[in-house]
Amino acid sequence: MFSIAADLAGSNIAPNASPIAKAAPASRPLLRADRFDAAIAHGRAIDRQTAIATAMIHFTAMPLVRPQPYSAEMGTAPAEHNRSAAKVGKRGTRSYRSIMTMRSLFATRFYQGALGNDALLEELDHSCRTLAKDDRAGQTWSKAHGYRGYTSYASLDDLPRRDPVFADLVKALNRHVAAFAKDCAFDLAKPLKLDSLWVNVMKRGGTHSGHIHPHSVVSGTIYVAVPKGSGALKLEDPRLGLFMAAPTRRPDAAEDLQPFVYANPSPGAIFLWESWLRHEVMPSDAKHDRISISFNYR
After folding, report:
1. 120 with 169: CB under 8 angstroms?
2. Is 66 part of any domain?
3. Are 179 and 236 contacting, i.e. CB atoms less than 8 angstroms apart?
4. Does the first or last residue of the chain, that is N or C, have fewer Cβ atoms within 10 Å of its Cβ?
5. How does DSSP classify residue 262?
6. How far apart are CA 56 and CA 39, in angstroms?
7. How many CB atoms lie within 10 A of CB 199?
């Protein structure tokens, strides 16, 4: 009969240990896996109960596992944009290294482009100011809803057909929206199309509180006139209501860790985002009108 006591008499490898155990280097204690496998392998030659007992004694009596020095076989470097770190220390006379990988998940895309057509931008400026003077229905709605300035949001829904300047703008926007949709990896049966487009002429002190754009896929704004002091676009982390006991972020935290991000526009800038992303326009302190054109695609 196999003797457990006899098997434990050796300091490192039992006299009757299996070939798996004997194959282990003599320069280091057997690892947990080595001893467990050795006992199981030997136990198969007798009975299951003794094999299990032998394996457990080997398992509990052995030294702690000693991590092996890091080598290329352990894996490749983390993918681009991942954060990694390595710590090197000492245990006895051997060095060891552990690997830590940090990934960013659930990305929120925000597109910043440029119209790149100064002549078209100048024509848009003229058309927007003309609408602000001539659109009586828009003026009435803006005043009734406390909008400091003018918006065609509730009065005109056919600007690309009414004015060829807006039709030219839509052609340019189509290319930007297509690029954004591709980067978002949208699985679309057909390209997104313009659903609505409206003009905003905001006076000093004007603002637009936090909101989303329901029933749309991509929303955005092109900035026509951005005088000094114009309000920025404030973007909100969509998980903000789920943070519960999460602590606030340090002021120097990376942008993708901040609960709010502020995008400062410039003339001709095109901002795009997914329509579910909550955003708001910060108060304008500019002496002149801040002019923009907002739109939805679906």
Report:
1. yes
2. no
3. no
4. N
5. E
6. 8
7. 26
Q: Which two tokens stand for residue 295?
A: 């739109």
User: What beta strand segments (E) does the chain contain?
Assistant: 83-91, 94-102, 110-114, 149-151, 194-202, 208-211, 218-225, 233-236, 260-263, 269-274, 279-281, 290-297
One digit per residue, pLDDT tens: the chain, 298 residues?
Answer: 444 433 433 444 444 544 444 444 444 444 444 554 554 555 444 455 555 555 554 444 444 444 444 444 444 444 444 444 444 555 555 555 678 999 999 999 999 999 999 999 999 999 999 999 999 999 999 999 999 999 999 999 999 999 999 999 999 999 999 999 999 999 999 999 999 999 999 999 999 999 999 999 999 999 999 999 999 999 999 999 999 999 999 999 999 999 999 999 999 999 999 999 999 999 999 999 999 999 999 9
Note if the pTM is more than 0.90: no
DSSP 241: G
| 264 φ/ψ angles, rounded to the nearest 5 degrees | -95, 120
Check whether residue 45 and residue 158 sit in a common domain: no
CB 260 within 8 A of CB 237: yes
Give the count of domains, the chain.
Answer: 3
21 with 150, same domain: the answer is no
Residues 98 and 139 placed together within one structural domain of the fold: no
Give the structural domain span for 90.
72-102
Give the whole-angstrom CA distance, residue 58 versus residue 69. 25
